[in-house]
Amino acid sequence: MRVVVTGAGGQLGHDLVEAFQGHEVIGLARHQLDVSDREAVLQAITTVQPDAVIHAAAWTAVDACEEHPDWAFAVNALGTRHVAEGARLVGARVCYVSTDYVFDGTSPDPYREWDATNPLSVYGKSKLGGERELDPGSTIVRTAWVCGLHGNNMVKTVLRLASEHDTLSFVNDQHGCPTFTADLAVAIRTLVVGRLPGTFHVTNQGATTWFQFARDILSFSGQDPERVHPITTSELVPARPAPRPANSVLDNAALRLQGLPLLSDHHEPLERMVKELT
User: Fold this and answer.
1) What is the pTM for the complete model shown?
2) Domains of the chain, residue spans
3) Which CATH architecture has domain 2-152+177-206+249-264?
4) Quick check: is 111 catalytic?
5) Confidence category of residue 42, pLDDT binned at 50, 70, 90
6) Cβ contact 252:202 at 8 Å
7) Residue 151 reports pLDDT greater than 90
8) What is the mean pLDDT of residues 83-96?
9) Which of 96, 101, 111, 123 is catalytic?
């Protein structure tokens, strides 16, 4: 296959390019392709003539999106419209990477692919807008709490803070499944090569909280997890501009029901990543 990866400079995009080795893969980082520029997107896709476009480019700065909604929608929603249009012109399939933020987080249960969306933040609304721009037959991969070796993420943040402070505080009332980009990229490859349409929730297994996740990071790095203290979201100082879903746990029901392999428990890739970073 000939595959275009947008957002190839990001932590997931980098691993997607790696995962598609063996195919003809063209990675386009932000400085190479601004997806909010329609002419640039159409020119890139019609020039390359790919079989599939994996649209991983997004503005994921959740709080900044809240403060700059027009730019959030220009990149995440309108940018996806441009990618879908370009793919339509050359007959390429689109795989769009979306987010747990399309849900409001109020459900007591993990969210299935068929549950009603209700984003609370500008980021979530703009990513849902992107989902709605796709043609039937496209693939949507919703994921959550993304971590990878390339780029900024919570694992690197916790390790940095632990080197600067004696104690750390993390919220214990936000629940989710950490997802590691190397694993996620392989799952996306399976969906794209298999030409599987529809929405799939893809996360590593095992729900946790940011508090427990931070404790696990310290444990795997040989530090004392008791240095991490629990707080509530309302106790965050300063308060975050964008609301966070209290429940970001995604049930990977479509993968499971399709008979496709689920990603491993998140502790396994977390331990590998911490050891690589330290």
Assistant:
1) 0.97
2) 2-152+177-206+249-264
3) 3-Layer(aba) Sandwich (3.40)
4) no
5) very high
6) yes
7) no
8) 98
9) 123
